[in-house]
Amino acid sequence: MAANRKKISGLQIGIIVLALATAAIHLALALFRPDPMFTPLFILNALGYVVLLGAYLLPQLAAYHNLVRWVFIAFTAVTVIAYFAFNASNFVNPVGLLTKVIEIALIVLLWLDRRNP
Length: 117
Hints:
The structure is a single chain. By secondary structure, the chain is an all-alpha fold. The protein has one domain. Helix content is 72%, strand content 0%. The protein is elongated and about 45 Å long. The two termini are 20 Å apart.
């Protein structure tokens, strides 16, 4: 059974770390900086990253790997765009910008991992 396991690549380790980091940041923002408008969005965003990461890595969904990767990229891109849309007048929050750097790096790694079926 262990012989059938696919080895996780360095790119995938990076994807795991970055996705969990941005999920943790969004969850922390929801829990420690509650805001009636943004708390539900932060929680849903954190859950979205965890669910998409699971779907991306599950061998049972290997047939849908490419589709899940594109959805993951789109989800992450929408998160980046939404940050700047909601913070147009003051987008220089250090935590927000750090999270966007993480998310852009995640998009890059997902893009580079396209050769990994």
